Each structure stands twice: as C-alpha cells, then as structure tokens.
Prior knowledge:
Elements: E1 3-9, H1 17-28, E2 34-41, H2 48-56, E3 67-70, H3 71-76, H4 78-93, E4 98-102, H5 114-125, E5 129-134, H6 140-156, E6 161-169, H7 174-181, E7 186-189, H8 199-205, E8 209-212, E9 224-227, H9 232-237, E10 243-248, H10 252-264, E11 273-277, H11 284-291, E12 299-302, H12 306-314, H13 325-338, H14 341-347, H15 358-371, E13 374-378, H16 384-395, E14 399-404, H17 407-416, E15 425-427, H18 432-445, H19 453-460, H20 463-472, E16 478-481, H21 487-497, E17 499-511, E18 514-519, H22 529-545, E19 551-555, H23 566-581, E20 586-591, H24 593-597, H25 599-605, E21 617-619, H26 623-636, E22 640-649, E23 653-655, H27 662-681
Amino acid sequence: MTRGVYVAASGAESGVAAIALGAAELLSGAVDPIGVFRPVVAAGAPDPVVQTLRRRFKIAAPYERCVGVDYDAVHADPDAATAEIIDAYQRLARDCAAVVAVGTDYTDVGAPTEFTFNARVAANLGLPVLLAVSGAGREPRAVRDAIALAAKEVDREHAARAGTVVDRVEPERVAGLRAALAGDAWVLPEVPGLTAPTVRDLLRACEGRLLFGEEQRLGRETSGLLVAAMSLPNVLDRLEEDHVVLVAADRAGALLPALAAAHRSADFPTLAGVVLTGDLGVSEPVWRLLSGMDLRLPVIASAQDTFTTATRLAAVRGAITPDADRKTEAALAAFGQAVDGPALLSRLQVDRTEVVTPLMFEHTLLTRARARPARIVLAEGTEERVLRAAEVLLRREAAELVLLGRPREVAARAAEFGLDVGAAEVVSPDDPELRERFAAEYARLRAHKGVTEQLARDTVGEVSYFGTLMVHCGLADGMVSGAAHTTAQTIRPSFEILRTSLVSSVFFMSLPDRVLVYGDCAVNPDPSAEDLARIAADSADTAARFGVEPRVAMLSYSTGASGTGADVDKVRRATEAVRAARPDLLVEGPIQYDAAIDPDVARAKLPGSAVAGHATVFIAPDLNTGNILYKGVQRSAGAVAVGPVLQGLRRPVNDLSRGATVQDIVNTVAITAVQAHAAREEPPPPRPEQEGTGA
Length: 695
C-alpha cells in the first residue's frame, strides 16, 4: 500500500507550497521513489507547485500523471471530478513508495465548502491530512478555534489527521504560540522572502524585456520599489538593498550610469534591477557607455508609463516556482526547523527502505550535519558558487561557517549576487595576528624540512594553508576548498599538517537508484598490498559512517582464482590482509567490476559470495584505474560524484572539483561536518613523525 500525506489549507490565508516541500523532503529521505499529486489545478499553464516539487525531488513521472482535474470540472460535477481524481491518483501511486498530495489554493473552487472538498478527497485517496492553518494576526485562542473547526471537518469526512502546521506566524509571536498550543501543532514563522517577487516576476508583470544584465539574475528576490523622480543625490540617498528602481526612459542617460556605479560600489546597497518606463529607447552614447561597463544588473524596458508600471509592479506577490531556488531552500529550512520530522514520519507509517538513493543520501547528510553543527572553513570565500552554497547551509543551520577573504570583498560579492551570508564569520588571510601565529606553528611543524618562519609567513597567506592551520589550531573543525584551486593546492597542506597515517580518498557516486563508494581515485598512485588493505578498511568505515552498508569489492582484471600476475596477486594479498585485520567486514577479491555489481554475472563467476553482485564499496588497485573508473561511471551513467573525501587526517579537509555545482559544495560541507563529529568522538592515533613520503 502506498503511503503519503495530503497537505490541505483551512483557508486562503495559509499557503501549502512550503509545507508540501517540507513533507516531500521528509518522505524522500525515507523511501524511493516519491510522487507528487495535485487533485485540482488551474487550466492552462502547468501548476507551479507540482513543477517545483518535480524539479526539486527529481520526480520522474510526467506532469500529466501528477494532476487530477481542473477547477471547471469540479464546478461542473463534483462527484464525477472526485472519481476522476481517484483514478488519476491510483495510476500514479502504484509506481510510488509514497505520495505528497497538495490541496487547492482557494483561488477557484471557492465558498466555505472548499476545505470540505479537500478533506473528502483525502479520505477517498486514503491519505492522512497535514492541516495548514494561518496564524497571521491571530491570537492563540483564535488559532485554537481554527484548528478545532478544521479538525472537526476532517473527522466528519472520515479522513485521518497526520498533524497540524500553523504557518505565517510573526517571528516574535512564535514562542508564545508554541507554548499556548502545548504541542497540539507545529508553529512555522512567517518567512518574508517567500512572498517577495523576483525580478523575473516583475518583468512579466510589466510585459518588459531585458536590455542589459545577466538573465540568471532575474531570479533575485526584490525588497521594494523606488521611483527615481528626484535629483540624483536624493535618489542615491534612498536606495535600499534589493530595491528595483523605476526610471523614466528619457532620464536614463542621467541616472542609469550612476545607479550602475552605485550598485557596484561597496558603499551603497546592491540593487535587484532597474526598470526603464515609457520605452523611449536609450540614446546611442548612453548605450555605448553601458555596454562597456560589463553591466550585470538587470535593466528592463517597460512600454507602460511610470505610474502604470509602478501600479502593476506593486501588486505582484511572489510565489514558490521551479526556478525560485532561494525560496525553496528558505521553505525547506523553515519547515525543518519547526516540524518534528521523525514524529510526523511515524504518524504517516512510512517504513524506511534499505536502499540508499541519492536523495536519501543528501537528506541524511543535512540531517546529521544539522544535529551537531560543526565549524567549517570555506577557503574560497569570494567565489560565487561557494557563497551560494554558504547561504543554503546557513539557512539549513547545517554548519557554522567561516568564509576566508577580505571582509569588504566578501560582503561586496555576496551583495552583488543578492545573497545573505551574514551569519557566517569572515576571516581575512591577511589578519596579522593569525598570520604570525600560523607562521610560527607551520615553521615548527616543518622544521625538519628546513622551513623558516620567514618562508612560513609567505606560505600561510595562501588560503588553503591558512584554512588548514585554522583547523589544526582548533579554530575550526574542518575545511573545504577546491572550487577555484587544484586538488594539489587543496590537499597538500593537509598532508603536511593534519596527516596521521596513510591518506586516501573516496568518491560517493550517486546513481539514480543507489549510492556507491569508490576508493582511492585521487591520492595514491600505486599503493602496496598493505596500503590497499588500509584503504579498503578506511573506505568501508567511511561508507558506514554515511549510511551505506559496506560490502567491499577489491577490484582487479580477474575474479577469484582465475588469473595470475603481479597486479592480481597484489589485490589477492590485500584482500587477505583486510580479512585478517577486519573480520567484521564483508570483503571479496580479487573481483572484476561486472561480477561485483551485477547479480547475474556474480552467479556465474563467483557463486555463493556475500559481496559479488551486491558490492557497495569498490577499491581500485591503483590511481590510474580508480580515476578512470569514477569518471567513466560519472559520465556514462550520469552519476553525481561527491568528493574526493579524504581519509587518514586528524581533522577533515575535503576537496572540490573546479566544476563543482552549488549542491556539490553543500554536500561536501555536510560530509565534512559529519566527519568532524566522528573525529571528536573517535580521536585518531597520535600524529607520527614525518617519514619517507615526500611530505
């Protein structure tokens, strides 16, 4: 039987999109695949809530299978519409482990009977109702009355109740309302950004066109409008962060260059965009000036006059849409902080599956990182992707972040992209006190290599060394770098400063239906049999730490006793060493990749093996093989490779690909945080003296 939840609002004041996102993330962390279903949608354009959930949770079902009927069908014949909804839901549900159904928006069904209609549909779908009740401007007694009235209606329609979320509560009233409700409902504070329109929303509202600037910046949220009808000094004095400024097109030559300069200045707020009203065109000299300014700020032309444009734009209310990533993250963060996920999951009677899918893996990472936030240094504090990832991590409270960079530059870059990273600490690698402290410590650690304090002062100014020394000196729990630096630049300092034994790496390979662990694909060119055994044991422990049950395959060009030669003999000796040192591990080797991953091949080549056909940890015999293996699977199978994740350090330092996405960075920081937890709980052996490794 397919489990799930029906998210239904008791009135138009309450939104369902944010709650539906939170419920979907909760379910995606427990089962796979999940589905989204909207019983009633508006005719015409695809429903934004359905599309947002499909995109965010990689739901494979096409849009048409995720919706029931339109509002006209409900008006014409509610009973027939309900029957059609049930049929559509059942067709979707049979291919899903769980489904999030999202009730109506109170935009068309209308009348006081709309909630009754949602409760009746939920009962017919066999889904418990997660009730959304608005707390905006309501006293605790009024909220209690609203909950009781809605709950009575749910009971009358014979639907089950999974819980209640009171949303849109003013932040200063949250604590008092929680106390007054005494656990009868979860209280979700109002998140202002969820209703803020984006620049793209405003462009559509005024039927404008983009003249200058980057299209990707149209997704920036706006904080308000300013009509530039005064002289330039007065306009500049009234600018606020994320404002959209309306300028009459015939004044563009006088105001637009100044606004562009103010936007790029660290002494003025950064703008979300400029709208030129009247569409009289920009004169050729002004156009030439702006074209040479590398203007990234969106400049939009509107054909309407200033009053009409301002009236239209002032009426725009933002919504969660597929391209509104910041709104999605804000909604997920608010839900995760307010709602007791395990309690809700137990009420939905959803049993976790044994398979670990990529979405489950990401959910587990963030959940574990959030449980005990670690202090993580992001060495490239002015890099755009790093700043975007930092905003996500801070919203999710997944880590306490330190951004390396000059504070003024970090603030200017974050403001340029419309990002809020104010909760992160910014530390300059030019800080004289820290530079002296780190130089003295680095010179002490590397004295056996002839490093003097003068040489150390130059070295520690490099961000990877600076960040690694912060970790070494206890000023941070871990570091992530590599978005703009090579692997060697990132990991060399950790080899010199944090190494405890053999350092190796793994990649978490996120395939559509599982997460596998590949090692060592980034560090050791030609490990000995003893080193290979150590890599296998460390990789198995890393896999287990992140929820992947370790079944270790020691890869070779031969399976079992079928082959001979120095290379296969090395793998055979390594396998024996792992079994001797770690009898608790399931390990098989030598084994070919096809026999390790394909049950049919395993039955033919290595019958009776507990690992063959079901391996989750794959150990390559050398770096050449490992690097080719992970890149081949990444490209040919469309896998997401998270790593390299380093092993064998006192404190975690992890590398990013220079092509890393924002989500890659978020995942890597979460992994680093979880490693930091383990390092606190399981102190590694004392740091050995440096010896014959070139370090």
